[in-house]
Amino acid sequence: MNGLMLVARREISxxxxxxxxxxxxxxxxxxxxxxxxxxxxxxxPDEYTLGTVNSQQxxxxxxxxxxxxxxxxxxxxxxxxxxxxxxxxxxxxxxxTKVITDGEIDSQLGVLMQSIHRETKLGAAGVRVEPLQMExxxxxxxxxxxxxxxxxxxVLVLFMLIIxxxxxxxxxxVEEKGSRIVEILLSAxxxxxxxxxxxxxxxxxGLINLATILVVGLxxxxxxxxxxxxxxxxxxxxxxxxxxxxLGYAFFATLAAALSSLVSRQEEVGNVMSPLTMLIMASYxxxxxxxxxxxGTVATIVSFIPPFSSMVMPVRMAATEVPMWQVGISVGLMxxxxxxxxxxxxxxxxxxxxxxxxxxxxxxxxxxx
Amino acid sequence: MLEISxxxxxxxxxxxxxxxxxxxxxxxxxxxPGEMFGFVGANGAxxxxxxxxxxxxxxxxxxxxxWQGRPLTYTDxxxxxxxxxxRGLYQKMRAGEQIEYFGRxxxxxxxxxxxxxxxxxxxxxxxxxxxxxxxxLSLGNQQRVQLAVALVHEPEVLILDEPFSxxxxxxxxxxxxxxxxxxxxxxxxxxxxxxxxxxERLCDSVGIVSAGRMVASGTVEDLRAxxxxxxxxxxxxxxxxxxxxxxxxxxxxxxxxxxxxTHGDDQEILRRAVKAxxxxxxxxxxxxxxxxxKEAVA
Lengths: 369, 298
Hints:
Chain A is mostly helical. Helix content of chain A is 67%, strand content 6%.
């Protein structure tokens, strides 16, 4: 156990001091922070500049409380037409009977003006129309946009972090094998300690990255006011992300260590790792698809199948409400898969890591005593 | 005592040699506590393979390694110090931290590891390089760090594969002194080397391997005794024919008569030489380890 922790600590302390780690951490933090402010810039409330000629302003605010309306009054239709053509105003109500615009009117604005006009006229004639009561019998969709946004960011973050840390594990294993330092290391510690320590150490670094992203992201969301759109159960979503990162990383990192222990040179890492990187990419694509259709059959089924579940389930959890029993089963299956991978990976690593030189065949390793 | 007995190892063959290569063909030897054992042999003779098997990096096909009368275990090996033939260090790690790290992996406490690293750095003349990354060091200095890594945990046994190769004479002396100290402290030391004069100077006993077999082993004195000794006599101002009837060959340069012989009664030869002229030299020529080695592997 002591050896395991020493190996893990070395991984952390060497990486954390490198400029590359600190710079990439700073860049991610800035990007995530900026992202939380983005909705404010792109998604501001609707604003309309309207005009009147010899008319009363329509009480549009009452019907559309989220939009802003600015009214100008013009002395005659000629002045109003000029303003419309110059683009100073979008629409001008003339004599309380017609609306002039430059081309087709914004459909929302058109409908709004028509209905408010009708209502005021009817009101003036003493007819009161009760507004329609709106009632949703489906799922709560108030937070749909925010949920999708969070899920999209999440899947990207999980993908980048997992593939980044997994490649670090692979490079580290080959560094030790290629330089033969592994021969001295294995005279002091057991193969599982060396392997486990490396995976834990780089995993902790991944968690530090993830925690930074979460803290900065949440902090910036509160600062920008985006947090007001957060769906209920945000704590659960965050906890879920951490758990799923650990599970997914453990699965992929162990396989990465096993595969990379077959080769002795850094140049060969990409090659030997390609099936695994493809698997991670596939998980990413499925998860990205799930952000669009989190309640669909494909997303639901795949969110139970390891290792895809490690990216798809957290996306579903963010994008929609997932029953607890589904999360439980999915976590259980993934944990089983991780245990299996650990057993398999440790065996391959132990048998292959001292066999330097030409690439070792996986089948040969598995057949050996 | 570290005992290596009847080690055999065949490496899997490629398509050219389905038989594979026989690396070790029943190698046996023993090293006592406090003994420095020099392991010599041509390239590919089996020295590295033997050391790798002792350190558990390779598995022997048959044969055994025992330590203090019991089969060698993983826990025993943790107390060994090992310097592999192909040097390996973390290139980006600082020299001092690297030595400390290995000390800790071998079970030293943080303070003990730091102390041991500082001591070794000082002994090997690397104190100023403590905080340099290994990749920034010269090859000779990297090798010193490598050695410090093998020594940091006060190992009970030292297995060093070519520890002297690539070192300058001053570094060789520093390393030799450190090894001799450890050896006097009761540690069995095995090292391989192609620098035979060095082996001759440092080692209590020597093993000569050839083609996976131990062709000669014992103290340097024993090996010499087994070799034929040559008596060399130099006489000046002697008359020609003074050595008639004596065994061996006489060569004459000016008034210098040199007699070389491998047999005969040395006392009789001395008497004849004294009578013949002025004896300038009378002595047995010791074969060097190089000569013994060449003879043994021939």
